[in-house]
Amino acid sequence: MPEFEETQWAALPLRDAYRYGSEHSLGQEVGKIRDMDIEWDLSYTSSLRRGYIVELFQAKGLFDDFKNTCWSNGNTRNGGKKN
C-alpha cells in the first residue's frame, strides 16, 4: 500500500482516517463508522463521522500519531477546530 500523503486539509480527511484505522487493526470499527446510518436534517454526514473517528482514535491512543502521520493541519489552531 502506498504511503500516506501528508494533507493540509482544514478538516480531518476521512478517507485517510479510514485507511489509517484499518492499518492499525481498527478496520471493523472504522468500517462501522463509514457505513453507519445517520438520520438527521442535514444533507451531509461527514462531520458526525469525523467526530466518531476522533473519539475512536483518542480512545486507542492513536489520534496524535494520526495527526502527525496523515493530517499535520490537525495540530494547528485552525485544524483543531475542524475535527
Globally, the shape reads: globular
The H/E string reads HHHHH
Low-confidence residue ranges = none
Major sheet summary line: none
Task: Write a brief caption for the model.
It is built from 5 helices and no strands. The chain is mainly α and 83 residues long. The N and C termini lie far apart (26 Å).
Report on the architecture of this protein.
The protein is 55% helix and 0% strand. The chain is mainly α and 83 residues long. The protein has one domain. 20% of the residues are buried.
What descriptive keywords fit this protein?
single chain; 83 residues; mainly alpha; 5 helices
What's the arrangement of secondary structure elements?
Elements (H helix, E strand, L loop, with lengths): L13 H10 L3 H9 L10 H14 L3 H8 L6 H5 L2
